[in-house]
Amino acid sequence: MAKVLDETLLGLLACPQDKGELLLIDDAVLYNPRLRRAYPIEDGIPVLLIDEARDVTDAEHAEWAARDR
Predict the structure, then answer these.
(1) Which residue of 1, 7, 31, 63 pairs with 23 in a disulfide if CB–CB is 3.0 to 4.6 A?
(2) Per-residue pLDDT reduced to its tens digit, 21-48
(3) Which pTM was predicted?
(4) Interatomic CA distance for residues 7 and 35, integer angstroms
(5) What domains sit in the chain, N to C, each tagged with a CATH number?
(6) CA-CA distance, 61 to 25, in Å (whole number)?
(7) What percent of the chain has pLDDT over 70?
């Protein structure tokens, strides 16, 4: 299966709130571990709107942050 976002595009995207790097999680969300906010990817298109982001649970944060190591 092809990746939804390639590395070049992922490197250009930033969190609209703190302008920092985002982590791609399972081609489904872009995650900001600093703010613990997840932005959805709908039909292959990142939805980088602050109002569309959601807070993640402690368990999600622990799992997703561990992937970035």
Answers:
(1) 31
(2) 999 999 999 999 999 999 999 998 999 9
(3) 0.87
(4) 22
(5) 7-67 (2.20.25.10)
(6) 11
(7) 91
